[in-house]
Write a structure and sequence with these properties.
Length: about 325
């Protein structure tokens, strides 16, 4: 697993349980299985989700004395299956979530550049929620962290362009505001033009370093409108980006499907359109700009203040991305 998140060090722990190497007695924790009629070693390993190149020697050592000529499998034997687990580590997710398993390789060969709106000296839009303030950059960042973790759990390389070492993924309703965010480990300028240029340059620098065939940039914001204006999630792409448009529509269609399933009487009115936004215009990878709702509207605020809803937003974005990745790989 070669997942990288921005410039931080990620340590990948690969734990292959090989007690047969260390002890004369085999642990009872191992699962066992008999080969199917005519099944060879290579097919047996693949059937049990083991990569032959990586796990064949471990498997043979674990099952010494149970093979025929040229390590052929014997139908009357049960074979112990090595337990393999890949553990990922990212302290930006917070102490409770910094260690987590690789769940799949569904997005292997992909790289993502996640850019949260505002940050540093600029909190973005501010909404009133009872006696509290909701700061756009904090909620956009929390949702982005959740999306990053979901992508990484499924084999993607992820770059968090905006980072805050103190926050981690938080489950509070009211997310405390601070101005500790950085962009590529550099201080975020207050001037908007400089701020946008800084993050576009950082995305492009990371893009040049990567070799994955599927590379996408997501810019995540919350909108600010009249308190009475309830809105759905909107997706923007550059007018000349056909791939950006396809991703935006895939995300939009995924949200539509989710609302039909979870809130069938509500409907979904989120749209896709092109916009001449700086980051869309000046980033090299295919990019989509996402507005997650109106931070001023009480109903939209429920989408942000509840941690389960923030996780749902991240999950739905992941589902749409995965569908676009699979569509692209079919070609």
């Amino acid at each position: 697993m070669s997942t990288i998140i921005s410039k931080r060090h990620i340590f990948l722990g690969v734990f292959v349980m090989m007690h047969a190497f260390l002890f004369s007695q085999v642990s009872s924790d191992y699962k066992s299985s008999k080969p199917k009629a005519g099944e060879g070693l290579h097919s047996f390993l693949i059937r049990h989700d083991l990569a032959p190149k990586e796990h064949q020697s471990v498997f043979i050592e674990l099952n010494k004395g149970k093979f025929g000529k040229n390590n052929s499998l014997l139908a009357h034997h049960s074979y112990l299956i090595p337990n393999t687990e890949v553990e990922l580590y990212e302290p930006l997710y917070g102490r409770e979530r910094e260690r987590f398993p690789l769940e799949s390789s569904k997005l292997k060969g992909s790289s993502f550049y996640l850019v949260t709106g505002h940050g540093g000296p600029d909190p973005g839009a501010i909404g009133k929620y009872g006696n509290h303030e909701l700061h756009e950059d904090e909620y956009a960042y929390d949702i982005t962290l959740r999306l990053a973790k979901k992508l990484q759990e499924n084999g993607a390389k992820v770059h968090l362009v905006i980072q805050d070492e103190d926050d981690g993924i938080r489950d509070n309703q009211i997310l405390r505001y601070d101005n500790h965010e950085t962009c590529g480990n550099k201080q975020i300028p207050l001037d908007q033009n400089k701020r946008l240029k800084q993050r576009a340059l950082e995305v492009n620098k990371l893009y040049k370093q990567d070799t994955e065939t599927y590379r996408r940039c997501l810019i995540i914001h919350l909108d600010s409108r009249s308190k009475r204006k309830q809105i759905d999630v909107f997706f923007y792409h550059h007018k000349k980006s056909k791939s950006g448009k396809k991703l935006a529509y895939q995300l939009r269609d995924t949200f539509d499907e989710k609302y039909k399933r979870h809130q069938p009487s509500r409907g979904f009115s989120g749209t896709v359109s092109d916009r001449n936004l700086y980051v869309l215009r000046n980033t090299t990878p295919v990019s989509v700009f996402v507005e997650l709702g109106n931070i001023q509207n009480f109903r939209d605020q429920q989408r942000f203040v509840k941690s389960d809803n923030r996780q749902a937003l991240a999950n739905w974005l992941y589902d749409g991305i995965k569908k676009d990745f699979e569509r692209k790989n079919k070609k």
